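Q: I'm writing up a methods section and want to include an example of the input and output format. Could you take the sequence below and give the corresponding predicted structure tokens, formatted cleanly so I can copy it straight into the document?
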Amino acid sequence: MPGQLYIVATPIGNLQDISMRAIDTLRDVDLIACEDTRHSGKLLKHYEIKNKLISYHEHNEDKRSDELLKLLQDGKSIAVISDAGMPGISDPGFAITNKARLLDVEVIVVPGPVAYISAVAASGLPADSIFFGGFLPSKKGERRKRLKSVSEIPATLCFYETPHRIGKSLVDCLQILGNRKAVIVRELTKLHEEVISGDLARLTANYESEKLKGEIVLIIDRHLIAGENRAGKNRKSISELVAKFQEEGVDHKKALKLAAKEYGISKPEAYRILQEEKGS
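A: Here is the clean output for your methods example:
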């Protein structure tokens, strides 16, 4: 008789965010498949779980899935965990779950923390309809294409991003999606947890060139901010945008930079257009 495959959520930062059921499951299974044996070893040590760990990550997922499925068919019970959160959600786990289903192996989910769900809850943005896009592509062209494909979805948009790419992604989000309310949530449940609220224009101006540390979730509202339009759709003039940002307390130099970002043009080009508008 086949064994059981357990998909077990683990803490995304704070080790206390694990259920008693998850702890019991990790103790009782025959084997635990994890992304990084050293990382997961710390979790097991903390809860005095003495069980065998085997690596299961994006580079060996297909091959390892077949090995684990053979063990499952031999009657072994296996738990799959990721470094943080729920396996299969932007982490390894899909391949073995899919193959197990096809072979009628019982798959049991042990729920727990998921970063983007917690981030939405903390963001203050609508949570009645959510679109989760995982990690945005690292290449600019692919990233902008992805953003265009989701620009009309009537839902709060959620993406994972890395510290070294968040600035570039904010620029593309502003240019493709237009200025919307947005929230950056980083280091969830950890010592330096931070929730940064604003709009895409302001967040872009603040973090385009400044690196944020830690794991990042970017939450974007489904609607443009009232009175604003997406690029190319009867938007405000450069001078109107500069005036608006100055009314919000931003100095002229930074206001011009924000306007340039919203138009997707360079600051010198924005300045040239501003002078033309003043002369017209």
